[in-house]
Amino acid sequence: MQRPLAVGDRIPDGPPDTAWYIVERVDAPHLLVLHSTTHVPASWQERLGAAVDWTWTFTLADTGDGGTRLLLRIRGRTRPWWLTAAYVAAIVPADYIMAGSMLAGIRRRAQLAGGRTPPALSTESSRRTG
């Protein structure tokens, strides 16, 4: 059994000590907000001023008919302009595909656990650049 997440917990995302998310907010089982500024190599940050600031928000919402909908919101802020262009061209489409796969996996696990599955899982993606 996994222990409950708490604000400040670190969630690895990739090989050890390369990138991670920090739990920014948690209201189990309704809300989880993850934040990261570690998805750009330190050498790029130092030499080129490159930065990615990502937030992932997972929200469980009542559908009003006894069901639950999982909402996923991803926000990213990048700099400089060339990293923003690469982010929009490569990372946004890749994240869309990855998020769809992740939500489908959650749906399968919910069905196996006997939970009522919402008619649709939705993703909402917005990006801010700067």
Shape: globular
Residues in helices, as a percent range:
25-40%
Beta-strand residue fraction? 25-35%
Care to count the β-strands?
6
Termini distance? 41 Å
Quaternary state reads: single chain
| Main pleated sheet | 6 strands, mixed
Produce the secondary structure layout.
Elements: E1 10-12, E2 20-27, E3 31-36, H1 42-48, E4 51-62, E5 68-79, H2 81-112, E6 122-125
Parallel strand pairs: 5-6
Antiparallel strand pairs: 1-2, 2-3, 3-4, 4-5
Explain briefly what this protein structure is.
With 130 residues, the protein is of the alpha+beta class. Helices cover 30% and strands 35% of the residues.
Note down, in words, how this protein is organized.
The chain has 130 residues and is α+β, with helices and mostly antiparallel strands. It is 30% helix and 35% strand. The protein has helices spanning 42-48, 81-112; strands at residues 10-12, 20-27, 31-36, 51-62, 68-79, 122-125. The chain has a six-stranded mixed sheet, with helices on one face. The longest helix is centred in the C-terminal third of the chain and has 32 residues, at 81-112. It is globular, with a radius of gyration of 16 Å.
Q: What attributes characterize this protein structure?
A:
130 residues; disordered C terminus; globular; six-stranded mixed β-sheet; alpha+beta
